[in-house]
Amino acid sequence: MRFCDGLSRRTFLRAGFLGLAGLSLSDFLRMKAQAVAGTARSNTAVIMFWLDGGPTHMDTYDLKPSAPAEYRGSFMPIKTNVPGVEICELLPQHAKVMDKLSIVRSMHHNNGDHFAAAHWMLTGYHGSTAADLPPKYPGVGAIAAKLRGANRPGVPAFVGVPNIHSVGLTPGYHGAAYLGVGYNPLDAGGDPNRPNYQVPNLQLVSGVDMSRMDDRRSLLGGLDRVRREVDRTGLMNGMDQFNLQAFEMVTGESARRAFDIDREDPRVRDRYGRHTWGQSALLARRLVEAGVTFVTITAAGWDDHGQVANAMKAKLPPLDRAVGALVEDLTSRGLIDNVAVCVMGEFGRTPRINPGAGRDHWGEVMSVLIGGGGLKGGQIIGSSNSKGEVPKDRPVKPAHVLHTLYHVLGIDPTLQFVNNSGRPIPVLGDGTAIAELV
Questions:
Q1: Would residue 2 count as lying in a domain?
Q2: Domain limits at 352?
Q3: Cα separation of 65 and 58, whole Å?
Q4: 262: which DSSP letter?
Q5: Between β-strands 379-381 and 101-107, what pairing exists: parallel, antiparallel or unpaired?
Q6: In-domain check, residue 369
Q7: Cβ–Cβ contacts within 10 Å for residue 76, how many?
Q8: Which residue of 362, 379, 386, 398 has the smallest Cβ count within 10 Å?
């Protein structure tokens, strides 16, 4: 996958943005030592489709059939199950569940830098840029991991499927920044659409059985006691606890069962679509059902500077099937009021089609799909002008969407953390939850 600046995801991996790749599972859990409960726990969760690269609003959720030809694009709107709400003809499964979802059509931040825009959308703060890549603030999922933790023991709080990155950075602006890498997402690290899909860190190494695992547990416990005797700083206190949690995730049932997508009825898997995005959405449902609090589905490849119509014909049908099946499944299982679903990227695309039949970066206005989690569905929040260039009414900023997700999760956005400079920083510095939704 390459972006318009010519840099590929592999470039950033070589540059050292490896997230948790160099950490063992016990290291990951050990770094949660200073976790604090910021608010009362609840059983709510969020599933976010992150459309990395920036999806076009003009060809998805905010069509302009009356605009000039060079603006309106190739597709026609279709009716949904909500009177007066229309979306792209390539999204018929969305149309069937629109009463559970709402579209924010007036989102804007006026920034066309992939990195700055992704950071802003995922953290609620302007911070990182293409010239200064490292994250400055924690992402929404990392905040959830810090303040809420998992809804049930034995599973991680924050998971990325099939992997997790933003504009090629792993985990990028989904990550925990100054909260510490212990609150980064657990990267599922594979394609759940492949036969015999397994999460690497949750499987026993070949040749290691349970008795050897127990021996290793005892050995590590003994080594920790030896190291604790020579440690005078107190850092070794609690090491046994985190090693125990790591072993329990590997040898226990909760996480292993949640990730075992082969347990699903094949008919359910077919309904989601036998492709990476569809099976990732099904895996996300399994994870929140098992107690994971925040799941990000990274659907990459939306930086469509050329031939945007062909790109939408390839990408929208699998996305449509995944989102539609997920909302239907959550509803039929009685989970829709506890699980919010959000679909967004870092910015929209230029309303005017460029000479290459594509659309370029456009932060002046974009669309966000959001619903479930007790939010009011079947609504259009705000609008863009007749050519899809700027908000026409009810302008919304990234912090408003994140406030809304924190509302679902029961997280107080006024809580503060101390950043790397010793400065207290609130979860969100401005904005409120979107009133029409809550």
A1: no
A2: 9-426
A3: 10
A4: G
A5: parallel
A6: yes
A7: 12
A8: 386
Per-residue model confidence as pLDDT tens for the chain (438 residues): 567 766 554 444 433 333 333 334 544 454 444 334 444 447 999 999 999 999 999 999 999 999 999 999 999 999 999 999 999 999 999 999 999 999 999 999 999 999 999 999 999 999 999 999 999 999 999 999 999 999 999 999 999 999 999 999 999 999 999 998 889 999 998 899 999 898 866 654 455 454 554 555 555 555 455 555 544 444 444 334 344 445 556 556 788 899 999 999 999 999 999 999 999 999 999 999 999 999 999 999 999 999 999 999 999 999 999 999 999 999 999 999 999 999 999 999 999 999 999 999 999 999 999 999 999 999 999 999 999 999 999 999 999 999 999 999 999 999 999 888 889 999 999 999 999 999
User: Which tokens in the block code for residue 394?
Assistant: 């009810």
- The answer as to whether 364 is a domain residue is yes
CB-based contact 338:45 (threshold 8 Å)? yes
Residue type, 51: L
- Say if 438 falls within a structural domain: no
Is residue 304 left, alpha or beta, with left meaning phi > 0 and alpha meaning psi from -120 to 50? beta
Distance separating alpha carbons of residues 22 and 24, to the nearest angstrom: 7
Look at the block and give the residue holding tokens 């990459």.
Answer: 300
d(CA 85, CA 285): 26
From CA 22, how far away is CA 28, in angstroms rounded?
10
Tokens 């309106």 locate to 72
Between CA 225 and CA 244 the distance in angstroms is: 14
Q: How many domains in the chain?
A: 1
Match 């492949």 to its residue by tokens.
194
**91, two tokens:** 């999204």
Q: How far apart are CA 35 and CA 207, in angstroms?
A: 35
In this structure, is the dihedral angle defined by the CA atoms of residues 120, 382, 374 and 162, taken in order, positive or negative? negative
CA geometry: angle 237, 241, 244, nearest 5 deg: 145
Q: Give the helix/strand (H/E) hosting 361.
A: strand 361-362
**Which of these, 106, 62, 117, lies nearest to 361 by C-alpha position?**
117
Give CA separation, 206 vs 87, 123, 155, in Å: 49, 40, 23
The CA distance from 183 to 144, in Å, is 9
The CATH number covering residue 270 comes to 3.40.720
